[in-house]
Amino acid sequence: MAIARELLGTVLHTCINGVHTAGIITETEAYRGLDDKACHAHGRRTARTEVMYHTGGVAYVFLCYGIHHLFNIVTNQADQADAVLVRAIEPIKGVAHMLERRNMARLNKRLTTGPGTVCQAMGIDKGHYGASLQGPAVWLSHHTSYASNQLVATTRIGVDYAGNDALRPWRFYPAGCPWVSKPV
DNA sequence: TAGGTGATCTTG
DNA sequence: AAGATCACCTAT
Predict the structure, then answer these.
(1) Which of residues 45-74 of A touch strand B (CB under 7 A)?
(2) Fewer CB atoms near the end CB (10 Å): N or C, chain A?
(3) pTM across the whole model
(4) Is the dihedral of CA A172, A2, A35, A127 positive or negative?
(5) Would you state the pLDDT for residue A22?
(6) Rounded distance, CA A59 to CA A131, Å?
(7) Is the pLDDT of residue A183 over 90?
(8) Residue spans of alpha helices (H) in chain A
(9) CB of A19 under 7 A from strand B?
(10) What phi and psi values does residue A150 have, to the nearest 5 degrees?
(11) Interatomic CA–C1' length for residue A141 and nucleotide B2, angstroms
């Protein structure tokens, strides 16, 4: 949970086919393998979730609804299976390339607010499954830190199937930030 | 508000 | 081997 908060204000970079794009992470969700039914890895260690059981610092990417790739950062020690989903970014580099990838004409909030659109704009797909977050394709750099009283915590999106665990307030974003998929 | 889309997991 | 299930997005 702490890492999900610390990642807000961190810059996510990708370099794909020589194209460098980057954005400030503005919305995250935390998932915990051991006791969180909303986590894909909870009670399941399969080919798809295997990388979540690895030591943190790698990417967990999966395909959702047959269309959208979702990008997660594996965060804990081996066998804990914890991860943070990146749900939105504020684009800061390579905006023209992001617009092209998203097939959009003008910059607006919809470019990178939502986990599926973040991946599309940044060029992330299943080829990045298990990739190191220390480059060369994907990496992070520091930009801003937020005090905890600047952050909003809400329940996570789209996890109603998880029963009580759907109520955990493990979705975070900076208060007032416009680059958020669904403000409260 | 509903439908598209395909990998993954279960046998509903 | 087939069917259900999804951490979503876009357009009506």
Answers:
(1) 46-49, 62-67
(2) C
(3) 0.96
(4) positive
(5) 98
(6) 5
(7) no
(8) 2-6, 95-102, 115-122
(9) no
(10) -95, -5
(11) 40
Question: Residue A149: exposed, middle, or buried by beta-carbon count in 10 A (0-12, 13-18, 19+)?
Answer: exposed
Lookup: nucleotide whose C1' is closest to A85 CA: C7
Q: Write out which nucleotides of chain C lie closer than 7 A to a protein Cβ.
A: 5-10
Interatomic CA distance for residues A89 and A95, integer angstroms: 12
A121 closest CA partner among A87, A83, A161: A87
- For residue A12, how many other CB atoms are within 10 A of its CB? 24
Amino acid sitting at position A62? F
Q: Which nucleotide is nearest to A158 (CA to C1')?
A: C7
pLDDT at A135 exceeding the cut of 90: no
CA distances from A54 to A24, A35, A50, A160 (A): 25, 17, 7, 27
A41 falls in which pLDDT band (50, 70, 90)? very high
CA triplet A123, A128, A133: central angle to 5 degrees?
100
